[in-house]
Specification:
Bulb-type_lectin_dom_sf, 5-stranded antiparallel sheet, Prot_kinase_dom, phosphoprotein, Agglutinin, subunit A, binds 2-acetamido-2-deoxy-beta-D-glucopyranose, 6 domains, serine/threonine-protein kinase, globular, alpha+beta
Amino acid sequence: MNTNKFIFCLVHLLCSLLKISALTYSITTSQSLNDDETLVSEGGSFELGFFSPGSSKDRYLGIWYKNIPIRTVVWVANRQNPIKDLSGKLMINRTSSLLLSDGNNSVVWSTKPLNGGQDPILQLLDSANLVLRDNKDGNVDVYLWQSFDYPSDTLLPGMKLGWDLRTGLKRGLSSWKNFDDPSPGTLSSGIELDEYPQAVMWKGSRKFFRGGPWNGLRFSGAPELRLNPVFEFEFVSNQDEVYYIYQLMNKSVITRLILNETTSSRQRYVWVEADQSWKLYASVPRDYCDDYAFCGANGICSISDSPVCKCLEGFKPKSAQSWNAMDWSQGCIRNEPLDCQRKHDFIKFSGLKVPDTEHSWVNKSMNLKECREMCLKNCSCNAYTNSDIRGRGSGCALWFGNLVDIRQFSDNGQELYIRMPASKGDRPPPVKVVVIIVASIAAVCVMLLVSYCVCRRKMKSEGEFGDNISEGPKEDLDLPLFNLATISHATDNFSVKKKLGEGGFGPVYKGTLEDGQNIAVKTLSKNSGQGLNEFKNEVKLIAKLQHRNLVKLLGCCIEDGEKILIYEYLPNGSLDSFVFDRSRGKLLDWSKRFNIICGVARGILYLHQDSRLRIIHRDLKASNVLLDKELNPKISDFGMATTFGGDESGETTKRVVGTYGYMAPEYAFYGLFSVKSDVFSFGILLLEILSGKKNRGFTHPQNQNLIGYAWRLWTEGRPLELIDSLLEDSAIQPEILRCIHIALLCVQQSPEDRPTMSSAVLMLNGESTLPQPKHPGFLIDLIPGETGPSSSNKDPCSANYFSITSLEPR
Ligand SMILES: *[C@@H]1O[C@H](CO)[C@@H](O)[C@H](O)[C@H]1NC(C)=O
Ligand SMILES: *[C@@H]1O[C@H](CO)[C@@H](O)[C@H](O)[C@H]1NC(C)=O
Ligand SMILES: *[C@@H]1O[C@H](CO)[C@@H](O)[C@H](O)[C@H]1NC(C)=O
Ligand SMILES: *[C@@H]1O[C@H](CO)[C@@H](O)[C@H](O)[C@H]1NC(C)=O
Ligand SMILES: *[C@@H]1O[C@H](CO)[C@@H](O)[C@H](O)[C@H]1NC(C)=O
Ligand SMILES: *[C@@H]1O[C@H](CO)[C@@H](O)[C@H](O)[C@H]1NC(C)=O
């Protein structure tokens, strides 16, 4: 037995040695790469070799992911010149050109000859960049040539999309013709070098979709591009270079952006290890309004309106007839032509994707006022705005001629000032002196009167405003203020023995007031992310919320820079200490768990709908559900809650808060949150309560997480196997089945498919029929599969395993 094992191991060892030694990591002038050989990147992520796409027999030289079983080609050398047989050969010649030749020694693809390079060496980097560098040159980051300068249809992390102005090199993407043919199709994408450079996608030579100019934070037409924990992005624009680039925060995530000819779109895919498949993450164009100039010149597109096209204020359809027939392509003209001799004004529009910058002008050091003056000076200037919207805005961008391809966003749009004739009603010039004098006196009187009124009004409003900003500690928050001494006494001076745990922002202590009442004291650690604003936000929100499934806030304490919240004390602690614990878990039989599920659902429903403020919790999880004496659930921790209609500008939306494992994919990736992201978290919570297992950290022989596992059991018709073994005696089958079903509905990939909390409550009560769930969201797949490589049944010889693993919360 043991000898057998030993021999087995030995064979494997030999086998892996052999295989590794057969891998090629670089090519020099004396070597070549033949059709049956491949060049592997050092970390083993990518592979360069010959392949035949789709059903074609033609051979191409390309780069693909080495560890993804579905052959996914990210770069092709001889896109337009296939080799007809297996005689292809890649070499480096004496002037450091890469040469790809066929059996007749005719060159099908080559790179430009170079002077540099005594000892050129070709290597594939782990980023998928194929680079030619001089082996004599100690600096390994200097390349004679690199494939990243000549992208195919795929933009990978670390690739630049745009221009090197010093050499005139333009890096753009172009789609494959079809699955069988990598030669350039009709779709291309890149950066248009206007005065104000913009991202554009073309179909043939026609503009097809415009990402728009970079406004300091994002492309104007890409409101979904936000700070997110998966990738960071940057736009560089200076004398030397103009490009967009993105980098992964965690290199273990596999994602790519491609131009897809079949769907005429630019798509982002993410590799999901558990499913062994690529998942479509995002796609543009998204809707009609993304079609270039859908509403014609001076029209504005708003997808939530009907019809979607409108003329800008002060404009009318060029042809009313075709406009009314829903043909908007002719666009709009001014109600009355601009008279350059007259005075002009500007109307401010908000929430826009700014117009095409083909006829634009930019000065990065001007301010908005100078910008306006500049625009007024030239009669064909029709609009202006800040070229950079970071902070309070800076720089100046002007638009000349028609304003094309404007759309309205509900979120993350920009401001634009559009030129209009000054409001009418100018007094005709008076003829008689007497009239002038009388008029002047009258005017002076009126002005005095008006300024008196304005002053009074202003003083009054300043007073009101002043009240608002003078936020002293004694601010009236409609709830009791405790003083620090009381709290300190109640908690034995914040003794370690009284510590209940560590919350998201700092430690939580148990306290006992003079009258014997128990309280929970949440102190906010000074280095917690939560500033005074967030603290006040939390206090004000929670103070207004009264529901039996929400933890009650008794008061707060703001003193000496301390920020402390005082809550009702719940003796049973949080749900996670029951559900994930084998012995305490027994205390929660099915009827208790069902009661908890329904209670949590009602609590969230209240937050979403019934409370005066509509609130998204954003960090719903088992440890944020507390249990009272009767094991009734109460939701806690609204520190991160954000109301609709509140101050959504500034930092709130830029910061993604929440806990991986519970976060909906659209939230984790793009920071897009909605009531539906709470619904997603609720779905996860449901699965955890039902199974007694954590979504995060759950491992299964087949390298699946809890959602993947639940989904598989569901599709295989044995959902009940998910259930916590502790529930076997108390389970009520139809209720359990319904809960699993609802959970899967809540974690669906697309937010639109997920039910609202009110329908989830109806479903739980059995008052509603349940649709079939679609495929669940997958970000949660980015959770470590500890059993990953060792237990999977992959070829033991392959040198490297590649798996999407965890994204750790900071
Ligand atoms: C190397 O190949 C390039 C491209 O075909 C060619 O222009 C150049 O002359 C070749 N150099 C030598 C020394 O043959
Ligand atoms: C080589 O050249 C011959 C004659 O020009 C042609 O028939 C044959 O197809 C070529 N072979 C390859 C591999 O290109
Ligand atoms: C293009 O999109 C379709 C539909 O989403 C997809 O099936 C296909 O795989 C995509 N093509 C590529 C090259 O990814
Ligand atoms: C941009 O504006 C600044 C400040 O008004 C001015 O000094 C500078 O000359 C302008 N640059 C160009 C290119 O117009
Ligand atoms: C106004 O701007 C346009 C576009 O930049 C330019 O062609 C034109 O000469 C300018 N006119 C004046 C009077 O400056
Ligand atoms: C990135 O993924 C690796 C696993 O490949 C994991 O060990 C690591 O903690 C992750 N790092 C971050 C910052 O999330």
